Every structure is written in structure tokens, then in C-alpha cells.
Amino acid sequence: MKGDFPMSNHEELNTLPPKTCTIERLVTMPEDVNKVIEGRKTATRRNGRYADVGEIMVLNDKKFIVNRVYSQSLGELTDEHARQEGYETVEEYKQSILSIHPGMPWLPQMRVWVHEFSPVTD
User: Fold this and answer.
1) Which domain holds residue 33?
2) Would you tell me which of 1, 20, 62, 89 could form a disulfide with 48, CB atoms 3.0–4.6 Å apart?
3) Environment class of 71 (CB within 10 Å of its CB; exposed 0-12, middle 13-18, buried 19+)
4) What is the pTM of this model?
5) Interatomic CA distance for residues 47 and 53, integer angstroms
6) Domains of the chain: total
7) How far from 13 is each of 9, 35, 65, 82, CA to CA, in Å?
8) What's the rounded Cα separation, in Å, for the pair 96 and 122?
9) For position 50, which CATH number holds?
10) What torsion do the CA atoms of 103, 96, 26, 77 make, to the nearest 10 degrees?
């Protein structure tokens, strides 16, 4: 599948378009912040690119490093991807997204930016 192959930082920076927002806006909802801190959320999908590989996100004084950034279509989502987001199934994740964004269509061909991250160990 396109976008599921890891790239080195150099390759990613050369192929990714410019960021459309800042890393501070990547994870903002309190429920999602808690999921990240508890280790139940290890990725965020956004309609724009919010971070570069290697950037540090700080949530409640805890640091998380962005490990991968890639494009993915909603139709490619699996339950495993939903678990990265802190949900059990794609349907559960979909319903959560649609409740946050009323009127948004959920189209299989619609592309999002996946930002995968992990805790920084000091």
C-alpha cells in the first residue's frame, strides 16, 4: 500500500509538502491528550501536515517524538490503524471523527496525513 513504507528522515523531508499547521495543534482534545499520555494513542490523522519527522510534541509536560508522517486514504484504514488512534475499530474511529466534524463526508478516496509518534525517553 502506498504510504506504508518507512523512509529515512532525509527522504521524507524531500518528498513531503510543506506543513499546513504547527505541531502544537496536532493533538488538542483533552480525551486524545489523555490517550497519548496513557499510551493508548500513537498516531493522529489530520487533513493537513502538522509535523515533520523528528519534531517534538509536548503534552502536559511529557514529550513525544514524531517518528513517521505519510499520506493515507480513509479507505485504507484497518482496525489496527484505528487502535493507533485509541479506538477498537475503524467504525468506532469513523463515528468519533464524524461527531467532531458534523457534515464532513467520509469518502474512501479522501486522503489524510498520518503522524505517528512515541514517548521521548530521557
Assistant:
1) 9-119
2) 20
3) middle
4) 0.86
5) 17
6) 1
7) 6, 28, 16, 26
8) 33
9) 3.10.400.10
10) -100
